[in-house]
């Protein structure tokens, strides 16, 4: 079994340089890192992860915290898979954490990724209080909250673009199912819808169904909207998991999509694609990859604490909004 010393000798570098090149530490030319990595691969070198973690004073594990009651939602499942893949590629274990407060030394992880932190979340506060570096998916809406880093998307801009898309397809009265404002993306979606309506001098038509959007609540909300004296001619379901139930409720009323009602979802996924529903590609797997990589970079000193990354999103138009615009 080749050792690190063998790799260093074959690459004509010191053992320290070989170690830094393979671990991503230090200030080395990229050409040196590539040469050492190529030599290590050629020799079949595999680092001793236990020894490496002992030298660094690390556990060799990071944690992942997702919002409560979201285990079955496609977005968070895909984000978790991306996080697992990124951690595995770096020789790091990933632990799914329960939503309970922790004390210093209470978790055997080197840092934590938090998906969609909620306003004034005591669990997230306890992680920071325990001295654990935290990287978040989207900003923490808690005032004065500071973390080791975050990866975020411009949800306000994408919600506005999706509303514009519905309007261009002929919608004049768009109803929105919202997730509430306990998360940053929920706040951004709410404000974007309010601003969009104000610019057109129309009253906002929105019903809050919650982040986890239980089916009975979604059915109740959609039924109330359709029974209103002036029902909507388009419906946007923002929370992950709400679109399927909302579409079932619409069709149970005998309404055709898109002929009678334009329909769009904010969170895409296989189920939404199968239903031919216009949606946003939130890139959850890529988000998981980037969150873990950012956390590891901060832990290893490759990037400064407080780093922010932007993850671009895109709308995927499908048949549910394919009605020809009025006058066409």
Can you tag this structure with a few keywords?
Rossmann fold, six-stranded parallel β-sheet, 434 Repressor (Amino-terminal Domain), 12 strands, single chain, elongated, six-stranded mixed β-sheet, alpha/beta, 12 helices, 42% helix, 328 residues, 3 domains
Task: Describe the model.
- With 328 residues, the protein is an alpha/beta fold.
- The chain has 3 domains: 4-47, 434 Repressor (Amino-terminal Domain); 61-153 and 284-313, Response regulator (Rossmann fold), CATH 3.40.50.2300; 155-281, Response regulator (Rossmann fold).
- Helix content is 42%, strand content 16%.
- It has helices spanning 4-11, 15-23, 30-43, 49-56, 74-89, 122-129, 155-168, 184-199, 215-226, 242-252, 270-274, 284-299; strands at 61-65, 93-96, 112-115, 134-137, 149-152, 174-178, 205-208, 234-237, 262-267, 278-281, 307-310, 314-316.
- A 6-stranded parallel beta sheet has the order 2-1-3-4-5-11, sandwiched between helices. A 6-stranded mixed beta sheet has the order 7-6-8-9-10-12, sandwiched between helices.
- The radius of gyration is 24 Å and the shape is elongated.
- The protein starts with a helix and ends in a 12-residue tail after the last strand.
- It holds the Pfam family LacI.
